[in-house]
Design goal:
The complex is a heterodimer of chains A (102) and B (164). Chain A is mainly alpha-helical and 102 residues long. Chain A has one domain: Orthogonal Bundle (Helix Hairpins), CATH 1.10.287.3510. In chain A, helix 2 packs antiparallel against helix 3. The longest helix of chain A is centred in the C-terminal third of the chain and has 33 residues. Chain B folds into two domains: 98 residues, Four Helix Bundle (Hemerythrin (Met), subunit A), CATH 1.20.120.1200; 42 residues. Chain B is 83% helix and 0% strand. Chain B has eight helices and no strands. The interface between A and B is large, with 70 and 85 residues.
Amino acid sequence: MLNFQTIMLFVGFLMIIAGCYCMIRTYHMLKIIIGIEVAMKAVTMFLILAGYMNGHMGLAQAYVITAIVIEVIVAVVFAGVTIGLYKKYGNMDIRNLTELKG
Amino acid sequence: MATIIYISLAFLLIFCVMAVMSHSLLKSAIYLALASATLGVILYVLGAYWAAVIEVSVCSGLITVIFISAISLSKIKKEEVQKLYSDKKRMWFLPVMLIVVGVALIVLALANDLSLTNTAEKVTEDFREIFWNTRQADIIGQIVTILIGGIAVFVLFRDDEDKK
């Protein structure tokens, strides 16, 4: 019988697959950010699971807070780039980035 | 405790898949917020109270606001997104793949008797002591990251104002 730690590991693995699939298969920039966020949620869950299993929950929480801060900054910067891309090209297709110079 | 975690994990996976598969960007952002809230429940049940509070407030609140702001600024219709990127044709493969991989993982774990177990006794740690004293370098890194993010957003929006 599988315990909940093992099931959490499997669910996190499936979430990473879903996030990577979203990043690979779509050209929409906001959808790509959503894929990154989904994968980051799995990483957050893995960190807390590791802390729970090792008994060092305080240290795991410190790492998770750092990961959340980085996650927010990535989302903010990506959203800014996305809006800039929309203003320049009228859509959010990531293939337009290849036409940029400099 | 295990029952709550099992139910939350099921909802978490469903919300994440819906966020990835939804054709509407607004619905995707809302499903992502729900996934963050569900993850917050899991973190709270496991005993990570501070991480749960920050996950719910920041990931479920702030990031959703950022996404909805970006969507509202773009003014792209749902039909245009579907037409341009044809997500409907591309995303049907995901649930099938997740079910196959999930079943394969469970069968492999049961066949080889793989099961994660706690390796150590729970240590009583004060989170504030670790966060503010032991991991001070992390705080400096976070401050630098926030400053870089602020500068990046300022630069991105400044170019637009210069043109006006």
